[in-house]
Sequence to fold (73 residues):
Amino acid sequence: MTGGGGGYTPGDGPMAGVLAGMPEVVTRLLDEHVPDRLGRCTACRNAGSGMVWPCTLHQIATRAQALRADYPR
Fold:
């Protein structure tokens, strides 16, 4: 599966499918993995530095949320 724009993104992996069945976890990831004023993920800080946002976990959670929206009710 490919993300928007035709390129692979970390959110395209199988983990998004697993997380799609765990809406509470997805919500928590999206709430915690937000950008700081420098455009780095606040939850992925490592000794003062951090991942550029959106981090991998935010991308996976976003994809999981989209997959969940596509689930038949």
